[in-house]
Each structure stands twice: as structure tokens, then as C-alpha cells.
Amino acid sequence: MKHYQRVLLFLGVNFLALGLGSLLQGEGPDGAWYQALNKAPWTPPGWVFGAAWTIVMICFSFFVATWCKVEKRKKIILFFSMQFILNVIWNMIFFKFHMIALALAVIVALTLLITYFFIRYAKEMKANAILIVPYFIWLCIATSLNAYVFLNN
Q: Does any domain span residue 80?
């Protein structure tokens, strides 16, 4: 498969994850439960989440499309699948089921997994490894927001 085809494939898969997460979140950030929470003072406006996830998933799609050239593809597919699942279920756990502690555990696991991707494959991928940095940064922010809600509600 050519590089641009892999990019399109992963764009589709990554945006599918975002779409599934949105479908499974119930009322989501517009719901009364979330609106009533004591949220972190650094919580960005709602539109930032959509913009950030769009940028993150575009960069991550290019990262994964390049990453597929690395050996041990079965391991790569396993880690990508784990990332997909954790990304999708966080929305449901946090917004629909209001299980803040479990959601925090999920987002910490996702952050650690993305950190592992970067550390493990940065040397092999050279400059392309920078494409995972927006995901890592956004997950650090999202984790801090989830942690604040956990500690203050």
C-alpha cells in the first residue's frame, strides 16, 4: 500500500474513533452533569476540543502511516488497536456513565501508550516521530482536566 493510501486509511480510522466516541458519550459536554462539574480553571472553550482533536488525528494519521513501515507490524497493530479502544471508551466512561476515576485511569493509560509509541519508535522514525507530539501534549492537557474534575468533585 502506498504512503498516501495509508494516510487516508488512518485518517478514516482515527476520525471513526472520534465519531464513535461522540456517539457513545450521551449528552457529552453539553449535558447538565458536565456543566455542573467544578472544572479546571484552564479548561478551554468547547470549540478548542474539536480543533485540537482534528489536528491531533491528522498528525497521528501521518505518524501511523509512516510507522507502518517499521518492522514488527503485529505489535504495531496491537498498540494502535489499544489506542483506538482507549480513545473511544473514555468518552462513554466519563460523559455517559460519569465514572470520573475510571475515566482518569483510561486517559492515563492512553497517555502512557502514546508516550511509549513515541519513545519506542522515535529513533527509527526520525523526524516523523514529531507527528505524535501533538497527541502527547493534548493528552497531557486532557489528563490534567480529568484529574482536576476527579479531585474537585
A: yes
Determine the structural domain holding residue 114 and report its residue range. Answer: 3-28+46-152
Within-domain flag for 39: no
Nearest to 152 by CA among 96, 94, 100: 100
- Nearest to residue 153, comparing CAs of 98, 107, 89? 98
Contact 95, 36 (CB under 8 A): no
Q: State how far the Cα of 112 lies from the Cα of 110, in Å rounded to an integer.
A: 5
What amino acid occupies position 15?
F
> How far apart, in whole angstroms, are the C-alpha atoms of residue 51 and residue 66?
23
Flag whether 23 is in a domain: yes
Mean pLDDT across 55-62: 90
pTM value surpassing 0.85: yes
Q: Nearest to residue 131, comparing CAs of 9, 10, 5, 2? A: 10
Kindly state whether residue 41 falls inside one of the protein's structural domains: no
> Any idea what the Cα angle at residue 23 is, between residues 18 and 25, rounded to 5°?
95
